[in-house]
Amino acid sequence: YTQQGFYEVYTNSYQVLEVYDLNQDGRDEIITVVQSGDLQDSKATVKEKTQIETMAVVTEYLGGQFHQTYQTPMNQIVADYIKITKNEDSFGRPALFLDELIGSSTYATEILTFSDGQLVNLTYGSDIFSQTVRTQVPSCYDINRDGKIEIPNTSFMPGYNEESENPVYLTKWYQLENGVFQLVSNTYINY
Question: pTM for this one?
Answer without folding.
Answer: 0.86
